[in-house]
Specification:
By secondary structure, this protein is of the alpha+beta class. The strands form 2 sheets. Strands 1, 3, 5, 6, 8 and 9 form a 6-stranded mixed sheet that branches. A 3-stranded antiparallel sheet has the order 2-4-7, with no helix packed on it. The N and C termini lie far apart (64 Å). It is globular, with a radius of gyration of 20 Å.
């Protein structure tokens, strides 16, 4: 029984790898890659919200954005987002005036503290959106951050 399972796994994984290499298998990884590409290449906020399926997102004060109002260097802008919403599934950082709106997207596994602390690059003074998916619905909050020295080639 053990030998039969090993043989199946060896042959099955080889076949699967061959199908992927030849482009004959268009599994979930291929569609996930396309989603990420489209989301991270979005140039406008409304376009990104449509791609993410968050077009009807509602503002929520249960999403906390902790960041300085003025950042001296747009290349390194520290910012923290904390979600107080039940069943938080994802947290995304959106920068309205960046060349690409989606700056970061984090999937929050069940049972994980929904708090993300990171650093963003910002081209100029802009609204930063904290987009949270919780319980299958989207919510957001915003904060304007003023940049004195641009970080995206500015």
């Amino acid at each position: 029984m053990q030998d039969a399972r090993r043989t199946f796994l060896k042959q099955g994984s080889g076949l699967f790898a061959s199908l992927l290499a030849l482009g004959l298998f268009d599994g979930p990884m291929a569609s996930a890659e396309d989603w990420h590409r489209a989301a991270f290449e979005a140039k406008k906020l409304d376009e990104l919200m449509r791609i993410l399926g968050a077009a009807g997102a509602k503002r929520s004060d249960a999403i906390l954005i902790n960041a300085s109002e003025i950042a001296e260097n747009g290349a390194v802008v520290p910012i923290q987002i904390t979600s107080k919403l039940d069943k938080t599934q994802a947290i995304a950082y959106l920068v309205d005036k960046n060349p690409n709106v989606l700056a970061a997207n984090f999937i929050i596994p069940e049972g994980t503290l929904p708090e993300i602390d990171t650093r963003l690059k910002m081209a100029q003074t802009s609204e930063v959106y904290a987009l949270v998916k919780a319980g299958g619905k989207y919510y957001f909050n915003t904060k304007e951050i003023k940049i004195t020295l641009g970080g995206c080639g500015g």
